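Risk register update: the risk of archive-format incompatibility is retired. Evidence:
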Amino acid sequence: MGIVRRWSPDEDEKLRELARAGKNALEISNELTRSASAVRRRAEVLSVLIMAKAFRARPSHVATHLERVAIDAIRTRRSFPAGVGPSTIAGMIEKGWIVPELGRRYRVTDAGVEAVRRKIPSG
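Archived output:
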């Protein structure tokens, strides 16, 4: 375990100020030269609410990781890996990426192949 740095009253006030400004834990941690987890723990002790990091939504025409592994499993006739559940399957059917066949089998459509080919946006 490393050295424990105590929080100063000035750091507490700066944390409160940055949280009021809508900064997330990572942004606050950069300002205070503390880890994001330390900032979250201190905010909890001080009863300060910190904004969750805003993630850009992935475009719906780009397959998520789970959708990609599900499509790969369908194409290679393997069982679905952990995490691929009914909602993932239903979403892919709704998007037209897969179609149900007899029993519990599915077929990948051309749109599904294209969704997997699309590059995942970074950032």
